[in-house]
Design a protein that fits this description.
Layout lengths: L1 E8 L4 E11 L2 E5 L6 E7 L3 E8 L2 E7 L4 E6 L5 E13 L3 E10 L2 E12 L1
Antiparallel strand pairs: 1-2, 1-10, 2-3, 3-4, 4-5, 5-6, 6-7, 7-8, 8-9, 9-10
Length: 120
């Protein structure tokens, strides 16, 4: 089984890749081809989405419609951040996921993101 991942930020930086995934219960596990030695564990239900990355890059993002949440990010260079996520839109369908959100650090929006994941 394959998925297509696409993200774009407010500066026009785009990431797009297609990769195989494994599904275990409500978890989708796949390689994050945007960074080295990193996997993604995606969990979703009708109301929320959790994205965990582990390996050289670690992060945990929780997306709950109508709720601002905390995010954690750490990379192999030692950069470590705790941020807030301002969720703008979540669309969860059987074969696709769409997220639109802002990352907030010290009360300032540092970036805006859109993510599409299509399951084939």
């Amino acid at each position: 089984m394959f998925l297509t991942f696409k993200s774009i930020d407010n500066e026009g930086n785009e990431i797009k890749f297609q990769t195989e995934y494994e599904k275990l219960d409500n978890k989708y596990i796949f390689d994050d081809l945007s960074v080295e030695n990193t996997k993604v564990e995606l969990m979703m239900n009708d109301e929320n989405v959790i994205i965990n990355r582990f390996g050289d890059t670690e992060s945990k993002f929780v997306f709950i419609q109508g709720v601002d949440t905390l995010a954690y990010y750490k990379n192999s260079l030692g950069l470590e951040l705790k941020m807030n996520i301002l969720i703008k839109k979540i669309t969860i369908k059987s074969k696709q996921l769409y997220l639109e959100y802002d990352l907030i650090l010290d009360f300032d929006v540092i970036s805006s993101h859109k993510i599409w994941i299509l399951f084939h």
